[in-house]
Write a structure and sequence with these properties.
Blueprint: H1 18-30, H2 33-46, E1 55-59, E2 62-65, E3 70-73, H3 76-79, H4 88-100, H5 112-124, E4 131-135, H6 138-153, E5 158-161, H7 170-174, H8 180-183, E6 194-197, H9 205-215, E7 223-226, H10 242-252, E8 256-260, H11 274-277, E9 284-287, E10 298-302, H12 304-307, H13 327-342, H14 345-363, E11 370-376, E12 379-384, H15 387-399, E13 402-403, E14 405-407, E15 413-416, H16 424-442
Parallel strand pairs: 3-13, 5-6, 5-7, 7-8, 8-9
Antiparallel strand pairs: 1-2, 2-3, 4-10, 9-10, 11-12, 12-15, 14-15
Helix pairs in contact: 2-15, 4-13, 5-13, 9-10, 14-16, 15-16
Bound molecules: pyridoxal-5'-phosphate (PLP).
Length: about 450
């Protein structure tokens, strides 16, 4: 008998099932109302229900909900499950660490396993003697990078990019080009020294770089914060060499280049760091998501000369957190890094992802609603004619057992981000399902 992990979908009607429905009712009464409101708005926008399924179990590329429906996860849980959900080596590492040591004294008296993770990440960084700040979520790593830039340059200014997403705590939120609505209510509390430059969608490298120069602020910035490609912003790939060029502009102006590899890092696009593979020479790199193998671990990796700015002569520890470098999450990260390497998942992302992108592109001439198909490795975006249509397609795919996400500033992109371990047969079955749901929506 086949085991959960690489099985095709098996979904019964209705969705959500009876058990999930009860749980969703509790959710609506207890969680922050923002999410229930958003579901209602999206449902209205799409003219289709938007109730969530409720996850109960996940293994490899499969998710099972509270009613026993089985899905194929083409979100990798927001990009976290690069090595698949519940990888046995990560689970074993967590169990062993949990029996030995659950919690230590952070930066004061750290655990052995935290030190091992610091050494591992330093060795994986692109610099000799790279320094590491461990944290929990992606936004934490970006916060640490922004603080580093202020310490190292003495300048509060940041150049960020339209459509960019770096998390929603106050530091990264100020640099969130993805949605003005996210920033607006909190504007008075946010860093006012942020300038947004256009993120190129198409066209020439020279034009893309001069647009950045034109947007450059008069007040010299301390940092340029950029994603190697817009992930949540709609799977937008800049022209080759763009990051390298942006880095050169930053360096000439005395600003640091912070690359946010939280979504792209550790193999999704076929390289450990997409920015470095693209020829860029970052000063600071933020990683998260895939790093923890399913547990919350993020990190700021930094060039040693730049990170030296933290070596405060008064000995003040300016940045720390109770749970940063927790022993269990550190053990999970070490195991996840082993799996990524031992299973050659960066190479696999290209080997499996390139033909998958070709198959998706073959759908374009068959459906007038497809505006564009783009991506790299196992990160694909299918831009559709409207956000409303994308939201309906996401729902129709869910009903067929495929978890996907809308992306882009108007939800106009169907984002497909499977675990890097996914069986290509599941991707091929998805292409057929997508072809059918697009045809059915086109015939409405
Ligand atoms: C590129 C990028 N940076 C930062 C973040 C924020 O990470 P977190 O939600 O863990 O704070 C995300 C999350 O989607 C991301 O895609």
């Amino acid at each position: 008998m086949s085991h959960l992990g690489q099985l095709p979908p098996a979904v019964g009607a209705p969705l959500p099932g009876p058990r999930a429905e009860g749980l969703v009712e509790t959710l609506a009464k207890t969680e922050c109302p923002a999410f229930t409101t958003r579901r209602a708005r999206r449902s209205e926008q799409a003219g289709a229900p938007h109730d969530p399924i409720v996850w109960a179990e996940a293994q490899g590329a499969n998710v099972v909900d509270a009613d026993g429906n089985r899905f194929v996860d083409l979100t990798a849980g927001f990009g976290v499950a690069a090595i698949g959900h519940g990888h046995p080596r990560v689970v074993a590492a967590i169990e062993a660490q949990a029996r030995r040591l659950l919690h230590a004294l952070g930066d004061l008296h750290p655990s052995d396993v935290k030190i091992e993770l610091l050494a591992r990440l330093s060795a994986l960084s692109p610099w000799d003697g790279g320094r590491v700040v461990l944290a929990l979520g992606g936004a934490d790593a970006v916060e640490a990078a922004l603080k580093t830039a202020v310490l190292a340059t003495g300048r509060p200014g940041v150049v960020a990019f339209e459509g960019g997403y770096h998390g929603l705590s106050h530091g990264p939120l100020a640099a969130c080009g993805y949605s003005e609505a996210f920033r607006a209510p909190f504007r008075a509390q946010l860093n006012p020294h942020v300038t947004f430059a256009p993120f190129p969608r198409d066209g020439s490298l020279t034009e893309a770089l001069s647009a950045v120069e034109r947007a450059w602020p008069d007040e010299a910035p301390g940092a340029v914060l950029i994603e190697p490609l817009l992930g949540r912003g709609g799977v937008v790939l800049p022209p080759k060499g763009f990051l390298k060029g942006v880095g050169e502009i930053a360096r000439r102006a005395g600003a640091l280049l912070i690359v946010d590899e939280i979504f792209t890092g550790f193999g999704r696009t076929g390289a450990r760091f997409r920015s470095v593979a693209d020829g860029a020479d970052p000063d600071l790199i933020c990683v998260g998501k895939a790093l923890g193998g399913g547990l919350p671990v993020s990190a700021l990796l930094g060039r040693p000369e730049v990170m030296a700015a933290w070596g405060d002569p008064d000995g003040a520890a300016l940045h720390t957190g109770t749970f940063f470098g927790n022993p269990v999450t550190s053990a999970a990260a070490l195991a996840a890094l082993d799996v990524l390497e031992d299973e050659g998942l960066a190479e696999r992302a290209l080997r499996v992802g390139t033909p998958f992108l070709t198959r998706l592109a073959e759908l374009a001439p068959r459906h007038a609603s497809i505006v564009d198909v783009r991506g790299v490795g196992l990160l694909a975006g299918i831009e559709l004619e409207s956000g409303e249509l994308t939201l309906r397609i996401v729902r129709r795919l869910l009903e067929r057992g495929y978890l996907t996400l809308p992306a882009g500033q108007n939800a106009e992109v169907l984002q497909v981000v499977p675990p890097l371990t996914i069986d290509p047969a599941l991707l091929e079955a998805f292409v057929v399902a997508l072809d059918e749901v697009l045809a059915a929506e086109g015939a409405r």
